[in-house]
Design brief:
five-stranded mixed sheet; 8 helices; Rossmann fold; four-stranded antiparallel sheet; GMP Synthetase, Chain A, domain 3; alpha/beta
């Protein structure tokens, strides 16, 4: 990664925010920083803030929700970037709705897929729409984003930010048609030139696009929908199943606080869908879950294996670690 990559990402982000930030007529623009500063999402936002002269509201321990809310109550905040689990955690606090959201202009969701349920609740409570985007370490967290002035959550990761070009290819490297799933490949001034001391031949397409490992589809307006990580995709009887899709549907069940989906080996189907569920209480049963899944999902997408857990393994930014769940399943089923 070069200095050019870093500077480009800061300028791309600044340009994307400008339609809103240019209308904030206050001495200071306050950005909530509740993400680990070493994470690429927070690193890029720090660069953006320093370049644009923002004031940071640092939250060193966002898991302390009462303390987090107390910090937010002490000053106005204009920009609030975070991951879906953090937004949901705040919304679940009874006194969060009592904060003053009159200054909030941008709610930026990234780091993991945002859910429609959380976005709808956030808009209802704060009056500020959640804008989802996508980025990666190899592109200094700049890639795609929804238009910053949009008022409605659309479930996509938006369109490419300035100077970024994206193609979607199949397993053979051929470009796919609109609405077809394929691997997202990206090119731009923010994208690294390669991994240090490693053969990068397979990391880029023949025409220089970096292979992200993310499966997406593009609609006729150029908006991209993030389906899942290529490595997390489940192959059930020859059908591609995306964990993100199942999780988003199952979270509509009132008895599910959180959930995560993985694929496990299956003699008949190749792989089967397994869901880990954090239940709201002890009244939630596997039969309830199966019935809800059958009513809301295509048959081959329905979880065949259900396990209740008290919590899910997550990264420092709240992203579910599906690899840990796969390892746990293997350990429990030698």
């Amino acid at each position: 990664m070069t200095q050019r990559n870093v500077v480009a990402a800061a300028m791309q982000s600044e340009a994307w925010y400008r339609p809103v930030t240019s209308d904030i007529n206050e001495v200071y623009i306050n950005m909530v920083m509740a993400l680990p500063l070493y994470h690429i999402f927070a690193f890029m936002l720090s660069l953006l803030g320093m370049r644009s002269g923002y004031t940071f509201i640092l939250v060193p321990n966002p898991r302390d929700m009462p303390g987090f809310i107390k910090t937010l109550s002490k000053q106005p905040f204009h920009i609030f970037p975070a991951v879906n689990t953090l937004f949901k955690g705040l919304l679940d606090q009874p006194n969060f709705k009592d904060l003053d959201f009159s200054s909030l202009r941008i709610t930026q969701a990234g780091g993991m897929a945002a859910t429609e349920q959380t976005a709808a609740r956030w808009l209802e409570v704060t009056g500020c729409p959640m804008v989802e985007g996508w980025g990666m370490t190899e592109g200094v967290a700049a890639g795609t984003a929804n238009v910053i002035t949009d008022r409605k959550f659309n479930g996509t990761i938006g369109i490419p930010v300035p100077s970024v070009d994206i193609i979607v290819v199949d397993e053979n490297g051929e470009r796919v048609a609109m609405h077809e799933a394929g691997e997202m490949c990206i090119k731009g001034p923010n994208v690294m030139s390669g991994y240090f001391n490693r053969d990068n031949t397979n990391d880029f397409t023949s025409d220089g696009y970096f292979r992200t490992g993310d499966i997406v589809s593009m609609d006729e307006k150029g908006y991209f929908t993030l389906l899942d990580r290529k490595k997390d995709m489940i192959l059930v009887s020859g059908f591609n199943v995306f964990p993100n899709e199942i999780e988003a549907v199952m979270l509509d069940h009132e008895g599910i606080v959180d959930c995560a989906v993985i694929g496990i080996p299956d003699e008949k189907q190749g792989e089967a869908v397994k869901i880990y569920i954090v239940p709201a209480d002890n009244n939630v049963t596997k039969e309830d879950i199966k019935e809800f899944a059958l009513d809301n999902l295509t048959g081959y997408k329905c979880p065949r294996h259900i396990e209740f857990v008290s919590e899910l393994p997550k990264s420092n930014v709240g992203k579910v670690l599906r690899q840990k769940l796969r390892e746990q399943h293997i350990s429990d089923n030698p």
